[in-house]
Amino acid sequence: MASSEEDGTVEEKENNNKKRTKSALATAWLTFYNIAMTAGWLVLAMAMIRFYIQKGTHKGLYRSIARTLKFFQTFALVEVGHCAIGIVRTSVIVTGVQVCSRIFMVWFITNSIRQVQSEESVILFLVVWTMTEITRYSYYTFNLLHHLPYFIKWARYNLFIVLYPLGVVGELMTIYAALPFVRRSGMYSMRLPNVYNVSFDYYYCLIIVMLSYIPLFPQLYFHMLRQRRRVLHGEVIVEKDD
Ligand SMILES: CCCCCCCCCCCCC[C@@H](O)CC(=O)SCCNC(=O)CCNC(=O)[C@H](O)C(C)(C)COP(=O)(O)OP(=O)(O)OC[C@H]1O[C@@H](n2cnc3c(N)ncnc32)[C@H](O)[C@@H]1OP(=O)(O)O
Question: Where are the domains of the chain?
Fold first, then answer.
C-alpha cells in the first residue's frame, strides 16, 4: 500500500518534471522565434526606408525586399504548428487563415505577377504588415520575458483597429490589379481538353479569393477585438473550440 502510494508520488513528480521541461523548452523556442521574427521584420522596415530615401520612388521597392519578405512571411507557417501542438493558446483555424492568406499574397500574387509589383497597393500592405509584425512579435517577446512595456501592449491591441482594414484594402486592390494580367496570360490555369480532363481558371479563383474576404475577414477582426477586450480590459471571454 505504502509502496503504491510512493509509486504514485514518484510518477506524479516525473510527470511534473516532464511538463516543466516541455514548457521551458517551448518558452525557449518561442522566445528565439519571436526575437528572430522581430529582427526579420525590422530588417524589412529598414530596407524599405533606405530604398525610399535613396531612390525617392516606390518603384522597384518590392523587388529589393522580395527575398527577405518571402523568407520571413513563409516562416510564419511555423505558427500554425505552434497552435496545433498547443504551445500557444490560439486557434489553428484563425492562425491558418491569417498566415495562408499572407503566403498566398506573397507567392501567388505579388511574386508571380511582375506587373503588379510597382502598384501603390503593394506598398500599402507591405508597410501595414511590417508595422503590425514588429509590434506583434516584440509584444510576444517582451511578454515571454515578463518585461512588457505598456506602450507595446497598447500598440498590439489598438493599432490593428486601423491597420487590419488598411491591409485588407491593399491586398484586395493588388489582387484586383492582377486580374487583367492573369486573364490575358492564362497563368496557373488549365483548359480542356487535357490529359487529366480537368479545367481550372486562376482568374475565377482570384475572384473567389477576393469574395472570401467578406465572410473571413470579419471573423479575424472580431477575434482581435475580443482579444483586445480580454488583454486591455480584463474581460473573461469564452472562445468556441475549433
Ligand atoms: C490559400 C488561399 C487563401 C485565401 C484567403 C482568403 C482571405 C481570407 C481573409 C484574410 C484577411 C487577412 C488580411 C490580413 O492579411 C491583413 C493584415 O494582416 S493587415 C495588418 C494588420 N493585421 C493584424 O493586426 C493581424 C492581427 N492578427 C494576428 O495578430 C494573428 O494573425 C492572429 C492569429 C489573428 C492573432 O490571434 P491570437 O489569438 O494569436 O491573438 P494574440 O496575439 O492575442 O495571442 C493569443 C495568445 O497566444 C499567445 N501567442 C500567440 N502567438 C505567440 C507567439 N508567437 N509567441 C508567444 N506567445 C504567442 C499570446 O501571447 C496569447 O497568450 P495569452 O492568452 O497567454 O495572453
Answer: 14-233
